[in-house]
From TrEMBL:
Pfam families, A to Z: Methyltransf_11 (PF08241)
Protein known as: tRNA 5-carboxymethoxyuridine methyltransferase
UniProt lineage: Bacteria, Pseudomonadati, Pseudomonadota, Gammaproteobacteria, Alteromonadales
GO BP terms in the entry: methylation
tRNA processing as UniProt keyword: yes
One GO MF term attached to the UniProt entry: methyltransferase activity
Sequence similarity: Belongs to the class I-like SAM-binding methyltransferase superfamily. CmoM family.
InterPro entries on file: Cmo5U_methylTrfase, Methyltransf_11, SAM-dependent_MTases_sf
SUPFAM superfamilies the UniProt entry points to: S-adenosyl-L-methionine-dependent methyltransferases (SSF53335)
Function: Catalyzes the methylation of 5-carboxymethoxyuridine (cmo5U) to form 5-methoxycarbonylmethoxyuridine (mcmo5U) at position 34 in tRNAs.
Top-level EC class as recorded in UniProt: transferase
Catalytic activity: 5-carboxymethoxyuridine(34) in tRNA + S-adenosyl-L-methionine = 5-methoxycarbonylmethoxyuridine(34) in tRNA + S-adenosyl-L-homocysteine
EC number(s) on file: 2.1.1.-
Organism: Shewanella cutis
Gene3D superfamilies: Vaccinia Virus protein VP39 (3.40.50.150)
């Protein structure tokens, strides 16, 4: 099994991430979770790693706040998009681009970080847990870890309400993969166990797109997407809606001592 590289799909993938209402929801939920946690650092300039961050939406947002960011991605095309956007910025952005698989990152080369972001990456990895453990060796004591992953149970529920019963009966496996359908979705309880093993205190747990993906296909011409966004934010931290999120966001804080 190989990890996914989006070089050939860079333009389509980037557009699907933040160029649509579902992307706006994703950005709003993640930032709602991150902003108050970052506030605990006060005015401190943070070192941030955006692991598998593509064209660096959050890298750029955080750099604009004065933080120092390392943006790493396996896709040269995604990083080329990032460089183009960084160069076009109306202010200097302290972002260092690293073209490499995130498994190649090390303390020796990159040092330690106050915040590590890993959004919509683990569901494409052949060995997600081991890869995340490697990243966490670079997280400072009391540092923050923002992990967003594709929710396998929501994947199943979406297939059920869509009437794709054969797909569900086949345990969500098909002969021909859709190119943007993640290959290794995860269960919420599985990732919670990882956090416990890593001594990572779970500060935030949110569903991402808890409503959007279950809307009827045809909406009225005057459908209000801002109201949808408001409802997504309202219900994203309540059960059973968290468990229905197409993605789930965990924000953890490192409680392990350096010797551990």
């Amino acid at each position: 099994m190989q990890d996914k590289n989006f070089d050939k799909l860079a333009q389509k993938f980037a557009k699907n991430i933040y160029g649509t209402p579902k992307g706006e929801i994703r950005a709003a939920v993640l930032w709602r979770d991150l902003a108050p946690a970052l506030a605990q650092f006060g005015d401190k300039k943070l070192r941030i790693l955006d692991a598998g961050g593509g064209f660096g939406y959050f890298s750029q947002k955080l750099a604009r706040l004065g933080h120092e960011v390392v943006l790493c991605d396996i896709s040269a095309e995604m990083l080329a998009q990032a460089k183009e956007q960084i160069d076009a910025s109306d202010m200097p952005l302290a972002i260092r681009l690293v073209h490499a698989p995130i498994q190649a990152l090390s303390i020796t080369e990159h040092g330690m970080f106050d915040l590590i972001l890993c959004h919509a990456v683990v569901e494409w990895l052949a060995d997600a847990k081991t890869t995340m453990e490697g990243l966490l060796t670079m997280l400072k004591p009391n540092g923050l870890f923002s992990l967003m992953f594709y929710n396998k149970e929501a994947m199943r529920f979406h297939a059920l309400v869509s009437g794709n019963f054969d797909y569900v009966a086949a345990d969500l496996k098909v002969k021909k993969k859709v190119r943007l359908t993640p290959t290794h979705p995860l269960y919420i309880h599985e990732v919670k166990l990882w956090f416990a093993q890593w001594q990572m205190a779970l500060l935030r747990e949110s569903g991402v797109r808890v409503i959007h993906d279950y809307l009827k296909k045809q909406q009225a011409a005057d459908f209000d997407y801002q109201k949808l966004l408001s409802m997504e934010l309202e219900y994203s931290q309540r059960e059973p809606y968290i468990s229905l999120g197409r993605y789930v966001h965990f924000l953890g804080q490192n409680t392990a001592t350096p010797s551990e």
